[in-house]
Amino acid sequence: MIKKVFLFITLSTFLSCATNENLQNCIQSLPLSITADLNNPELVNALVPGGFVELNNRGEKGILLINVNGNEFVAYDKRCPASDCNQPMTFERGIVLKCQCDNSEYGVGFGIGGQPQTNGYVCPAIEYRVIKNGTVLRITNF
Question: Which of 44, 54, 81, 115 could form a disulfide with 123 if both were Cys (CB 3.0 to 4.6 A apart)?
Fold first, then answer.
C-alpha cells in the first residue's frame, strides 16, 4: 500500500511539472508610470463597473483600462504580445483583446491576466498594475 501511495505521489509530481521556456521569449512588461484622474471627461466611460476606456498614445500601442467593480481597475497594453504587429489590438465582445495581424485573442478582466485564448499562443497580453487613490488612478508596470 505504501509503495502505491509513493508511486502515486511521484507520478503526480512528475506530471504536474511544467516548463516556462516559451514564456522567456514573451515581451515583458514595459516601463510605465502614468496617472489619470477619473474626473477627466476622457475617462467618463470607466466610472461604472464594467466600463472601460482606451487610452491612446499611452503605453506601447495604447492602454485598455477596465473598471472591474467600481473600486478595482485593470489595465492592458494594446501591443500584440506574439508578433511584430504595428497595429494596436482591438477590444472585442467586452472580454478579449484581439491582435489584428494574426487574429490571436487574449482574455482581459480581473483575474484573467491577459491569458491567450487562441490555441498555440503562450504569451499573455501585457498587464499593468492600477492603484486607485481617491479619484486618481496610477497605472504602472508591476
Answer: 81
The Cα–Cα gap between 129 and 64 comes to 12
C-alpha cell recorded at residue 57: 498614445
Residue whose grid cell is 477627466: 40
Opening angle at CA 114, ends 108 and 118, nearest 5: 100
Secondary structure element (H or E) that encloses residue 9, with its range:
helix 2-16
Q: What is the pLDDT of residues 106-115, one digit of tens each?
A: 999 777 889 9
Per-residue model confidence as pLDDT tens digits over 61-90: 899 999 999 899 999 999 998 777 889 999
Q: State the DSSP H helix or E strand holding residue 136, giving kind and residue range, or none if neither.
A: strand 136-140
61 burial via Cβ count (<10 Å: 0-12, 13-18, 19+): middle
Going along the chain from its start, the domains and CATH numbers come out as 24-140 (2.102.10.10)
